[in-house]
Each structure stands twice: as C-alpha cells, then as structure tokens.
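Hi P.,

Sorry for the delay on this. The queue was packed all week, but I finally got your sequence through. Input first:
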Amino acid sequence: MQEAIFNWIGGSRVEVLGAVLGLAYIFLSIRQNILTWPVGLLTSALYIYVFFEAKFYADMSLQVYYVGISIYGWHYWIKGRSEQKHRVPVIKTSPALWLPLAAVSVLFFVCIAFILICYTDSPIPGWDAFTTALSLTATWMLARKYLEHWLIWIVVDLVSAVLYATRNLWATAVLFSVYTGMAFIGYLQWKKALKTG
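Then the structure:
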C-alpha cells in the first residue's frame, strides 16, 4: 500500500505540488493576504499542465485566465492598499450587480459548452463548462473583494471534487473537497471583516 502511494505521488508530482500550493492559495485568500495572488499564479501555471493531461480543456483554459486575473488582483489589491492606507475592504454584492453577473455566467457557460462539445474530446463538457463559467465569475469577484464569491466557490468546489474523482485526479479531488470547507470558512471570515470594517 505504502509503495503504491509513493508510486502515485512520484507520477503525479506536478498535481501534488499544485494541490499543496492551492491549499496555500485558499488559506492566504481567507486571510486577505496579498500573497494570495503570486501563489495563485504559480498554482494555475502548474494546473495548466495537469488539466491538459486529463483532457479538462475548459479547466485548463480557466487556469490561463487565473494567471491573468492573478496579475489583475495583485495590482488591484496593491493599488487599493496604497490609496486607502490599508487593505482593500470586503464589500457586499449589490442586487443590481447580480443580474449582470448571472447573465455573464450563463453566456460563459453556453460558449464554453459549445466549444467543448463541438471541438474537443472532453468526457464531461456540460459539467466542465458549468464549473468553468462560475469560476470565471467568482474569481473576478474575489479580485474585487465581493463577499459572495465564497458562496459560488462552495458550489464550484463541491462539483469539481466529484468531477476530478471521476478522472482519477485524486490529489485534486481531495484539494477541492478541502476547498469546499475552506470556502465556507472564508465566507464566515470575510463576513466578519465586513461587519468590523
């Protein structure tokens, strides 16, 4: 048993390193630490390779987006800190913003599902498109520090954990199971930060 575990880890070094950095990323995100972004950038770079190998093409493309949004979030948090003399504050998503966010998410889903169905050999194009579309929205909300992004992540992480398990990406399935619980903790922590200002 122990030998099988070591063999699996040896053959999955990039995935395991990505999972470890992914845990660091979510922990830093909950703490609203600026290092969220460089760690997230590195995690995403590793997962571009992992998801390409597993034929999760939408998730692979999402990692490319994460690299870009990590740069944006890093810049936005640094700029906000220098302008406000402290970290960018957590804010609630306004009712007026929910409709555009939902519309953009649906548009992302339709476009991504179409591409995956018509142009790839993705084994689960609908679910891959679903988690990718919501992830695009949630990550933008994280960069802007909208509290409710954590609620979206709870759904995305739970569904993703199941999907990765079906493709034998066990380190990633465990990572996303942990992400689900940490997203709940993140929501509570950010909600507390919102109240205390």
